[in-house]
Amino acid sequence: MRRLVPAVLASALLVLVVASGLLVLSDDEPAPDAGPVLEQRTSTVLAADFEGGLDGWEALGPARVEQRPGDAHGGAASLVTTARAEAWNGAALDVTGLLTPGTEHAVSVWVRLAPGSEPADLQLTVRHRTGDETTHDHLVSQAVTADAWTELRAAYTLPGAAEDVDMYVESLGSLTDFLVDDVLVTKETPPVQTDVPPLADAFPDGVEVGTAVARQDLVGAPAELLTRHFTMVTPENALKPASVQPREGEWTFERADEVLDLAVENDLRVYGHTLVWHRSTPDWFFEGPDGEPLGDGPEDRALLLARLEAHMRAIRTHLDERYGDADPVWAWDVVNEAVDPEQDDGLRRNEWYRVLGPGYVADAFRIADEVFGEDTLLFLNDYDTESPAKRQAVADIVRRLLDEGVPIDGVGHQMHVNLTTPVHRIEVTLDTFAELGVRQAITELDVSISATGEVLDRTPPDRLAEQGRYYRDVMDVVTRHAPELESVSFWGLYDTRSWLRTWPRDRPFEAPLLFDDDLQAKPAFWGVVDPSRLG
Ligand code: XIL
């Protein structure tokens, strides 16, 4: 296994230059215009700057929130809130599971009023629910003008176990329109453990070990954890079509560049995610110049295919220009979640299918092959491939693609499983695709500790122990299948960062990953690395 010599560990400081959106690694004093300096013990749990969209923020009550290009505290865009009917209507983010109860968080939000507005007071609030009781904690309120950005800054501790936790900006006594930018929430975490073996060493030679990351993982303690343990990263959202090309011909690579820059600095591979998907793809892809939905006639089909090709080519050009021979992207999820076992032809009915018909999957791979060339592995990625029906449907489609000579290299298994998913099914799946002769990757592994529909009110130690044994068994399967597996990637670096905390419902105590909210190794880690340590 390739040893990691992370440049980031040698670096005394990680400096996040918020204003320019650039990540700078430096042993020296930060430049005078640098943003906040994040020490190695600081973990960023939220970093929203609205450069690529709304970053999950929504209107609270009857109001409108939109991205506002051209007006920003840092970078080129902010979030604007208008059409508010009452003072409490504002811009909100669901932060359930993001704030560790009992732990102090440093919160910083930059605000400004819309041009021409009279000065007004804005307030930062966290609303949370425990049982039937909803509490509003007002963190800070301050007079704000239209002329200058003002920082709303507070230390905040969520008092106890809570659900439906929202952080929002509201006003006091006015209905003013306002802008929000550069939201940063951090907490102090214990030192990253240096006396545990690197995860990568536990994996067989030739199997990369990856994790999904976003910008909050690229500085401070999470970055140290990342470079200590992993050999690969997948940008969690930054390479999705909606992030890269929100409007036709308008490219926003900043978020992806941050991840790729860190990967290049630290000799990590990048798994590209994703080119064709029914989600996180802006509507304009499927609309004609008149704003009407595309049909399935020859002209509209040609337009959609041309857009797909233009999308891929622009990404390729950007990677070439920025990284040249050091381009770290070695694989792409060309098509994500295309399979639906309920359909006769096994394909999910989505906008791509509606316009292009069943051939769109082959088209996407042919274009990707032309654009990204032979050096990049091209994957068909899907969830639930461990379940018999889905496994069969994906295998049928892959067989068909191979028979037609479509340039597909492999199958990605997302592997979002829980403690009741029989591990044996994972093994049968890897065997099934091995027989087809395609490469395989486990692309989004997480093992949730709650059953379907269950919402835990704490993280029970016995579930964590069971999860350790589950990961041990998965690792046995991985080891046996090493020759067919390119990589195993986890969907998040540590539990606070798991998408399962808010999907498909709020589950603040879900803990599906290898490291806990303090970035410390869980039984899950030992299940993978050294099962003899599992009590
Ligand atoms: C998820 C991200 O983790 C979230 O941050 C985002 O809000 C929604 O998407 N399958 C996929 C991933 O292929 O892209 C999804 O990632 C998780 C399910």
**Main sheet characteristics:** 8 strands, parallel, barrel
Beta percentage is 25-35%
Low-confidence stretches: 1-35
The ligands bound in this entry are: (3S,4R)-3-hydroxy-2-oxopiperidin-4-yl beta-D-xylopyranoside
Distance between the termini: 28 Å
Average pLDDT value? 92
Count up the helices: 12
Structural class category: alpha/beta
Major sheet: order of its strands? 15-16-17-18-19-20-22-23
Estimated helix fraction: 25-40%
Please provide the count of β strands. 23
Apparent shape: globular
Oligomer: single chain
Radius of gyration: 23 Å
How would you characterize the overall build of this protein?
The chain is of the alpha/beta class and 535 residues long. It has twelve helices and 23 strands. Strands 15-16-17-18-19-20-22-23 form an eight-stranded parallel beta barrel, surrounded by five helices. Strands 4, 6, 7, 9, 12 and 14 form a six-stranded antiparallel beta sheet that branches. α6 packs parallel to α8 and α11 runs parallel beside α12. The N terminus is likely disordered. Bound molecules: (3S,4R)-3-hydroxy-2-oxopiperidin-4-yl beta-D-xylopyranoside. The site of (3S,4R)-3-hydroxy-2-oxopiperidin-4-yl beta-D-xylopyranoside has 6 residues, from loops.
